[in-house]
Task: structure prediction
Amino acid sequence: MNLLIYQIYFDEQSHRMLDPGFIPLDNSSAIDPELYEFSVIYRYFKEHGFEDETFYGFLSPSFYNKTVVNSSQLFEFVKANCNEADAFYISSGWDQIAYHQNVFYQGEYFHPGFMSVASEFFHAIGGDPIKVFDSYSVFNNTVFSNYVVGNARYWKAWFELADKFYTLFKSGLVRSLHLPATYAKTDTTQAVFLQERLHSYLLMQQPELRVIPYDTTLIGPMLLTMFIDTPLNRKLIRSCEALKCQFLSERDSDALTLYHQIQKKVKFS
Result:
């Protein structure tokens, strides 16, 4: 098994943030910088293709700050489980995944109008927006920031979906992808929020892909502008995740009822 985990940088400041255990990937001459890591990943596979028996990852310079996971921990985790998975999700925003029903409602919460954009996109590629919006996000089907380490099988499937997204983005056929939005006090478009949710849609279409999540719930950062960070609040939010998992595996309506009750107990900032 070959393991290629890149960490992207785009200027001197971001270069100083890199973990020396990852492979530096220069994106200082970025094409489509408004798509963040997506454009780097897409162009890498378009130019280099895929090698069997290789796991690939493409991480932002903020990876450690968002996950509190370093290269040694990640390499150890992937090597220990590589025979059991097609991909590993190391998600930032674990609290967002756990608390909200799914990342599409979460996107709408922070970026009003997002679900309308997503709906137009899914219609354009022949998907069913209603099915997507009825889904439940948990750690083994959802990831933020494209923090994925996956094998060729996984990335080939992602690339097929990503190619449809990129074609629609560049052609302007789905105009709403270009609607203005804000991320980290920076002007951007709604497309950036949709592209990182392609992984969730991919797993709805190909549930046979095996994903193992890296657990960041004990020490991983929380969104402090939304939740207070206390042991009890972390426990409540982790319970939301557990109850959604129970519902998905057992179709237990009582678990779903309890999930909504726990949601109301979570303390906001």
User: Anything to note?
Assistant: The radius of gyration is 18 Å. The longest helix spans residues 152-171.
